[in-house]
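Trying the structure run again after the queue cleared.
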Amino acid sequence: MKKFLLAVLVVGSAFSSFAIKYEYDNFNEQAKTCRLVGWSGELPSSGKLVLKDTYEKDGVTYKINEIAPGALNHLRTVTEITIGANVRTIGDNTPDNPYRDVVNFNNAPRLERFRVASGNSRYTATGAGILIRTEDDGSKIVVRVPQALPLTTGRLTLGSSITDAAHNAFAENTTITTLVLPAGFNFVNTAGAFTNMRGLKAFEAPSNPYLNVVDGILYGPDRTDLICYPPLREGNSFTVPDNVRMISQNAFLGAQKLNHIDLANVQTVLDNAFAKSALWNVTLPATLTTVGRGAFRECPYLSSVTFNGKHSLERAAFKGCHALTTANLSVDLTFENDSVFEGCGFKRIVFPEGDVPDDYGLRPYTFCNNASLETIDLTKLNTTENNLVIFSNLTLGCDKLTSVKLPSAVSFGSSGGVNRCTFGADSPVKEITLASFWTVGSPCLLYTEGNHLPRIYLQATGSEECFWDFQNFFKVTGDATVRPLIFTDAYKLHYNGKETAWYVYPTASYYVPALARKNYTKAIEAGVTVSEMFELTVDKNSGEVHVVNRYPNDITFQSVSVDGGELEPFDAANNVNLGTELKNGTTLRIYYKFRDTQFKTDYPIAEIATSGIESATTDHAVVKHEVYTLSGTFVAAGDGEADLTTLPPGVYVVRSADAAGNTTVRKVTIR
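Done. Tokens:
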């Protein structure tokens, strides 16, 4: 007998340790109320979950009057839920916000019915098991429909006393194929109620003065707003009627069969309107001014978007459209908030010509996590009147992005936070083309680990009213190193007529035009290497101009002009004869190309006309060297020529500098 009792006790203990347990908070000792905030343990094997009316703590009995948002999600095996008698608030569905989402009962695929304990003055359940909220004025609001609501024919007709539905009231239901709305059902709060109804094919709304149903699609009373397109409606193409001006929140969310849409004269697309739909391509008409938050997010097949007007794009408008590779991006698109094209499939982002509007910017995370993105080119934008503002983490997580080309005037904004930067920490960007720029608050390139050799192509000629703030352009933490190679076409980097020290970055190497090294005194005084990229001879008497590549040796010399006059091309030997035009002129401009970057340098003829011989006869004896692997990892450094005999086989990059600070770089293979 004792053994039997012991066995019973052991089984009881095991059962209690695995049974469902609830968690509570918000204990109000005066009102004697508390809130259910979560559950753990095992769900009842019967599938029936009966919530408690009260909870006892420290000898005090509290009425459970609230269910917190998310407290009762993932009830995967539950078929029936009974709400306690004292509950007045479920999730965001409160006395003050009766049309808000209950934010509970998600991922409950077997749930067939709700019940409500007797005595609850706020929540009830219909005979079919639908959860209803009753307001003081007698209006009855559907707040949640079971996901597996039993229906023989798939047709659900709401009772005549139902006046409205809360946000996401029908979310995740799989059994309703036709939903019949009663005559007193008000459209005002309907948008968003029918989210993700996975089996819905059609609406009906007979004799309803607030709603119109055409071909199974739900519209407002005058048909100017499209409220809901049934997610499982037949047909892969749809043309929005000409009179529709607004696509309501969640209207096409999860439309499983819709591949093509004609938006006709639509003016506004609200939040999540086409999210997770099966669209292949989209054309936004000129009438459309506002694209709401997440309007086209996570459309798995959306590959192209055509913008035909000036559109305001809200947060995450196209976020998560991994197949989106083609879009005619331009300054006609206003980025109202962050993450507009996060997680898309762009390989190249190129903006066409256009005047940058006042206070225009690319917001944080606009193109982040574009896994295929390699190039951004914004150089055609006209920033004469307004500079372009680029905010932090624009391309965070773009692991293939190596080239960024920016227009002639840029500001780098900051949205605060730790380790914020324009292109993401430890960005793979290897080349940045820019002209006048300012950094504000956060760096453009942040390095936390590894060795980095970014190339900066600074098209500074003609942009003298600028700080060129390289001191805040880079940031290095931890064991990371950065040795920027900064190529500039400026004869002088001046601000308000004086050389600015802001451009000096201590580990950078500067490559400047011929005869310009003497003008970079701030860098030289700081011990930074400054080298001239080419040699220049100007003979004022003969009118001859001659250039010779030094480093880099892949400069292409194109043409010259005097005082903005006619362009004269260089011949095959890099000579130009300007005759008396040179003798009588004030400013010589040389046009040349380094790789794909267009440079131009303005020279005061009076300063440089007799200086070519000095440049040609400089002593280039090597006084120091640095050695890197081909991937940029630092190997060694020292005085004089590099001794490579001790290095293991491989390909190395050797950078050598002479006493004047001129630098040469060569690639060496050791076998």
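The chain is about 5% helix and 35% strand. Worth checking whether this holds up in the mutant runs.
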